[in-house]
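Q: Here's a chain of 102 amino acids. Please give me its 3D structure as C-alpha cells.
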Amino acid sequence: MKKYILIFSVAYAIAMIIIATLETFFKAPTGSSIICLISGGSCAASFFVKDHQRIPDPSEKKSLVWGCFFASIIVSIIATVISLIIFPETAPFLSAIADLPI
C-alpha cells in the first residue's frame, strides 16, 4: 500500500499546486481542496487497479483510505509551512486561527 499512498501524496500535491496557480492567476474563489483530494484518490485507485487488475478488497480499501487520510494531513502541513516561508503575510491569519478555542 505504501506505493499507492505515495502516488496519492504526489498527485494530491501536484493538484494543490495547479489549483493554487489557477486560483491566483484567475482570481477564482478558493476552497477547491476537495478537487485535490479526489484527484489524488482517483490516481492512487487507478494505479492499484492497473497493477492488480481488480478493485481493492475491504482490508486493502481500509488501509488505503487511512494511509491517504494521514498522507493528506502531512502534505497539507508541509504546504502550510512552505506558504508561510514564501508568503510571510499569512502568518497573522494562521496565528489568529491557532488562538481560536477548540
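Q: Can you summarize the key feature?
A: The chain has a mean pLDDT of 87.
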